């Protein structure tokens, strides 16, 4: 999560909402890919930290299926990213702060653990939650 927080800080430097993500290999410690929110930097509404990290991890592995990998992200994923997480078949999602306004992994929706879907990752929430939330609060306060 510390690495994801570093990524989040990179997003803020470009004027993007500070959200960072890391994908860990099946061994649980090798970093396969990282990403931070680049909506402003890339003029891309889909350039969320999680999507970029998932894409890069798949490219690094040479396969779209990210079974046994872990996605670590500073903020609870939105519906788009929850869909991508489901599509990637990733096995574990770890996130920091909850997003009560748009979260799709336990807050507003729980897309990733919807029993109607055939793949449901394990979800661990609240890791360094205060630090993750503080970054976001500071960003919006300073705007
Ligand atoms: Zn998202």
Keywords:
143 residues; Cytidine Deaminase, domain 2; five-stranded mixed β-sheet; 5 strands; binds zinc ion
Task: Give a quick summary of the entry.
Residues 1-108 form the CMP/dCMP-type deaminase domain. With 143 residues, this protein is of the alpha/beta class. It is built from five helices and five strands, in the order αββααβαββα.
Could you describe the 3D structure shown?
The chain is α/β, with parallel strands linked by helices and 143 residues long. It has a single domain, classed as Cytidine Deaminase, domain 2 (3-Layer(aba) Sandwich). 36% of the residues lie in helices and 19% in strands. Bound molecules: zinc ion. Zinc ion is lined by residues 48, 50, 77-78, 80-81.
Structural class: alpha/beta
Largest sheet: 5 strands, mixed
Instruction: Kindly report the oligomeric state of this protein.
Output: single chain
- Looking at the structure, what is the overall shape? globular
In total, the number of strands is 5
Strand content: 15-25%
Estimated radius of gyration: 14 Å
**Hetero ligands:** zinc ion
| N- and C-termini, Cα separation | 25 Å
CATH class: Alpha Beta
Secondary-structure element string: HEEHHEHEEH
Number of domains: 1
Name the helicity range. Answer: 25-40%
Going across the major beta sheet, what is the strand order? 2-1-3-4-5
Name given to the CATH homologous superfamily: Cytidine Deaminase, domain 2
CATH fold type:
Cytidine Deaminase, domain 2
Mean pLDDT: 97
Low-confidence sequence ranges? none
């Amino acid at each position: 999560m510390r690495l994801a927080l570093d990524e989040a800080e990179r997003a803020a430097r470009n004027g993007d909402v500070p959200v960072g993500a890391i994908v860990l290999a099946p061994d649980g410690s090798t970093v396969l890919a990282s990403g931070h929110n680049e909506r402003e930097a890339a003029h891309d509404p889909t350039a969320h930290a999680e999507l970029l990290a998932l894409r890069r991890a798949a490219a690094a592995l040479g396969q779209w299926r990210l079974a046994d990998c872990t996605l670590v992200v500073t903020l609870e994923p939105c519906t788009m990213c929850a869909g991508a997480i489901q599509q990637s078949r990733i096995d574990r999602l770890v996130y920091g702060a909850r997003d009560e306004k748009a979260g799709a992994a336990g807050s507003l929706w729980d897309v990733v653990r919807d029993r109607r879907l055939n793949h449901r990752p394990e979800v661990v929430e609240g890791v360094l939650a205060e630090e993750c939330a503080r970054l976001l609060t500071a960003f919006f306060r300073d705007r």
